[in-house]
Amino acid sequence: MTIKNMKKLPEDFLWGASTSAYQVEGANLTHGKGPSVQDIKKVPEGTSELDVCSDFYNRYKEDIALMAEMGFKTFRFSVAWSRVIPEGAGKVNQEGIDFYSNVIDECLKHNIEPLVTMFHFDLPAALEKKGGWSRRESVDEFVEFARVLYENYGDRVKYWLTINEQNMLTLVGDVIGTGSTEGVANKYKKLYQDNHHMLLAQAKAMKLCHEMLPNAKIGPAPNISLVYPASCKPEDMLAAQNFNAIRNWLYLDMAVFGRYNNLVWAYLEERDALPDIEPGDMDIMKAAKPDFIGFNYYNTATVEWADDEGEVKLGDQQSGAKEPGVYQSFANPNLLRTEFGWEIDPMGFRATMREMYSRYHLPMIVTENGLGAYDKLTEDGKIHDDYRIEYLRKHIEQIKLAVSEGVEMMGYCPWSAIDLVSTHEGVVKRYGFIYVNRDEFDLKDLARYRKDSFYWYKKVIETNGEDLS
Ligand code: BG6
After folding, report:
1. In Å, what is the CA distance from 179 to each residue of 141, 182, 216, 242, 291?
2. 422 C-alpha vs ligand 1 centroid, how far in Å?
3. Taking Cα atoms as reference points, which of 133, 338, 305 lies closest to residue 227?
């Protein structure tokens, strides 16, 4: 549809950006923090350890001041569960509680609304060693963690996100270091049992949030990519529906409607992998209602029909996968790619927003979107990231079009506020508006520099998205 009368974004649109604790903070085993699964994983060859990252733990004041200079209305960050409760359950680490309390106060001092992700890929290692999300007890452990967060920060935090990219934890956990399925007899059974526990934990945490903090708002934060069929062949359409259900709708159908997606149910039945569901579980799922949907969008996916032959192939969050008899990835010839091989699809962003809104009719906030690139610091201290500006501009244009088509968008938080460590491609894959002066293994001085995109985004926020030039 051609839109000639563009609507303005809402006055209270939440402009900001995102980070996650294990990728930005550093201080990963100090100040009382227990290890998380990220701290005990073997980092991919050629990439940095997570002990310093961007040193946000020590420099949060300077970083939040820079965010304020850009005009942020919100800052999405995550709490490291094992900083707050080192063993995942039991004793609370007061120093950890104080750290996030200070971060929240610093945001509020600058009129920045904290948007807090409760769990972003960093399950406490102590819980993982006991069996992680495979144990039924993990549900209550998460809810207890949520209670600690609500008790300590609920007086100041209005917006909460439950679990970052639960779909990626389930689909590509091996790649992002959140758990391995090596040696597991039926990996589908394990992964979707874990997934059931996470869904239940999320539902209970949303319910508890509404009981304890009646003025707060809470929602999930999956990674949603609309899946295209590679052609107009009917079998490609079926493959696209399969992957859409497995990758996207399972998570939102459950969070919003409290029911299992029927295609995913059939897929699990075929694999002898239906989760064990206890009496009352589905009532809990149905009773819990998110106030909004947070979602991460990097690009669309395209798939074609896959016959029953061949092996299952794993990609990463945004690329290449195959499941015989279900779908296989197809390189979309209509799209450009980033330096790291991820497709770029701003129009697909609009298509994704339209589809999500027509399915769930809830306000939405973009909790991640962005371009990973090899940025260069020039001798005079500049970073000319016009490619990032181009990427973000085109995506914001699509938000404005979607809003003009009646989609309710609450805000936009690209990835990432500041450079940080990628999930599996190290420090060199940079996303931030703020450059951090370090290399993969040489920490240099960790000084902060404003990229060209920093000044551009400041103007975008100042004009509430009217000036994207
Ligand atoms: C999302 C994650 O999948 O994508 C982030 O929520 C991650 O944690 C981001 O960093 C970008 O992915 P990557 O692999 O480039 O770091």
Report:
1. 18, 9, 32, 25, 30
2. 6
3. 305
Report all structural domains of the chain as residue ranges with CATH numbers, in order of start: 14-462 (3.20.20.80)
Residue partners of 97: CB distance under 8 A and separation at least 6? 84, 148, 152
Ligand 1, atom 7, lies closest to the CA of: 423
pLDDT of residue 2: 92
Pick from 422, 425, 429 the residue to mutate for probing ligand 1's pocket: most ligand atoms within 8 Å of its CB.
422
pTM of the predicted model over 0.85 = yes
The residue whose CB lies within 8 Å of the most ligand 1 atoms, and thus the one to mutate among 297, 415, 419, is 415
The token duo for 160 is: 């909460």
Averages of pLDDT over runs of 10 residues in the chain (469 residues) are 93 98 98 97 95 98 98 98 98 98 98 98 97 97 98 98 97 90 93 98 98 98 98 98 98 98 98 98 97 98 94 87 95 97 97 98 98 98 98 98 98 98 97 98 98 98 98
As a dihedral over the C-alpha atoms of residue 22, residue 24, residue 30, residue 36, rounded to 10 degrees, the angle is 0
Indicate which residue's Cα is closest to atom 8 of ligand 1.
Answer: 423
pLDDT (0 to 100) of residue 180: 81
Cβ of 167 closer than 6 Å to ligand 1, yes or no, is no
Q: Are strands 322-323 and 327-329 parallel, antiparallel or unpaired?
A: antiparallel
Ligand 1 binding pocket includes 78 (Cβ within 6 Å): no
pLDDT at 231: 98
- The whole-angstrom separation of Cα 208 and Cα 457 is 36
Report whether residue 162 contacts ligand 1, using a CB cutoff of 6 Å. Answer: no
Cα 301 to ligand 1 centre (Å): 16
- Using a 6 Å cutoff on CB, does residue 164 contact ligand 1? yes
Q: Is the Cβ–Cβ distance between 304 and 236 less than 8 Å?
A: yes
Is the CB of 296 inside a 6 Å radius of any atom of ligand 1?
A: yes
Note the pLDDT of residue 234: 98
Q: What is the pLDDT of residue 1?
A: 87
